[in-house]
Amino acid sequence: MSATLGTMLARLQPTWKIAVFERLHDVALESSNAWNNAGTGHAALCELNYMPEGADGSMDPAKAISINEQFQQSRQFWSSLVDDGVLDAPSTFINATPHMTFVRGEKDVAFLRKRYEVLKKEPLFAGIEYSEDSRVINQWAPLLMHQRRVGEPFAATRVPAGTDVDFGALTRQLFAALAENGADVRTNTEVRKLKRLKDGTWRVGYRRAVGRTPGEIRARFVFVGAGGWALKLLQRSRIPEISGYGVFPIGGQWLKTDNPDLVAKHKAKVYSQASVGAPPMSVPHLDTRVVDGQASLLFGPFATFSPKFLKNGSMLDIVTQVRPGNILPMLKVAADNPGLIKYLVSELLKDHGKKVDSLRDFMPSAKDEDWELLDAGQRAQVMKKDPKKIGVLQFGTEVVTGADGSIAGLLGASPGASTAVSIMLGLLKTCFPDRIAEWEPELRNLIPSYGSTLNSRPDAAADVLEETAQTLALRA
């Protein structure tokens, strides 16, 4: 998020001075790191939680279309930066990887079939395929079918135009380009204080990790893109808009294999239904990952628990977030989500063997010895005030902005990085309303569909998909 916003501002207002503070020794070592997230280019091609079935059995594709529209803006932005030489060869951060959904049981098969019938009519989902035939699914993803029980109802959808994204590599390249063009990118530097001054600027107090040397700068605008720690820094800013917010940290683990025989047989990201009580970010999936040119497979995520808001956070994070304004909303969330608590406990009780047993629902032939456990990143699920329910647990991402637009921060989790471009475009409109009109020509140059929708214009959707696929070398 921070790298995306910095890149935009550098293009839109090249005379502005930009400073970036990172508390670790390098950028992209937390949530953006390749092994701390699934790397899915979230476009709602395979994620069932973006299109739930209504109580009356209907299916509304609006949310899925919205997520896809946002990802298309990301693709266009990255394509422009590749053309301009800001980003390296596309294969260093994005690769074509079909997106699939695989379900079992008559109820879920009926659900997936209905979802397919709705989505196949939408221009941004052109090319989606559906099958209940084991021979067809075996061609798409052989590991799903090998040793599967005969007579079991199952179905799958497949979209060849899906992607796997190394958000760590993307983030590093964006920050490197920013630094090359004059931005002050400081690592090993932790922001400790945010104070609004009488003239409307912010005093940003920081401390260097080496020697613990303190310092400060003045800024007219501050963006807090600190992952789980964004809440803590926004609380220190004392803006009233952060009152009532809290976060619940959820960690994760993957099963990972580099076995070349297995990797060669599976090139897809395959999602399924979430377990009862599980948050959407814990939907099980078996994924191709390409990191530093090396392909491997991940399965998960499996939830873990730590009171830290970041992998490199503090054991006191979950306690020190408590304020008079957020304690009631957080208690209400705890009372209203016993299924989530039950799910987390069940996940914590799973050993390596039990986790491979879960994998066998996807891959019946899985062997314990082929898979190792890998720790994923920490996710901070948003808890906030609600006028009707006192407090609610919110999934997805949310930007919290000060009343005058001089400070903003990002809370939440998936789809996160995939939709960073769209989220930062929204932030620009909110925080710089007096400049957005003059910026629009350059924004349209970077993102041709800016200010319009693609799904409502089939020809435009087809053109954008084809053009970005060519620029980013996305050919399955």
UniProtKB/TrEMBL annotation:
Sections of the chain in a coiled coil: none
Superkingdom per UniProt: Bacteria
Gene responsible for this protein: mqo
Tagged with keyword Endoplasmic reticulum: no
Entry-linked InterPro entries: FAD/NAD-bd_sf, MQO
Catalytic class of the enzyme: oxidoreductase
Protein keywords: FAD, Flavoprotein, Oxidoreductase, Tricarboxylic acid cycle
PANTHER family (alphabetical): L-2-HYDROXYGLUTARATE DEHYDROGENASE, MITOCHONDRIAL (PTHR43104)
CC cofactor: FAD
Species of origin: Microbacterium aurantiacum
NCBIfam families recorded: mal_quin_oxido, PRK05257.1-1, PRK05257.1-4, PRK05257.2-1, PRK05257.3-2, PRK13339.1
Catalytic activity: (S)-malate + a quinone = a quinol + oxaloacetate
E.C. code: 1.1.5.4
Official protein name in the record: Probable malate:quinone oxidoreductase
Keyword Zinc-finger on entry: no
Pathway: Carbohydrate metabolism; tricarboxylic acid cycle; oxaloacetate from (S)-malate (quinone route): step 1/1
MF terms (GO), sorted A to Z: (S)-2-hydroxyglutarate dehydrogenase activity; L-malate dehydrogenase (quinone) activity
Family assignment from sequence similarity: Belongs to the MQO family.
BP-aspect Gene Ontology terms: tricarboxylic acid cycle
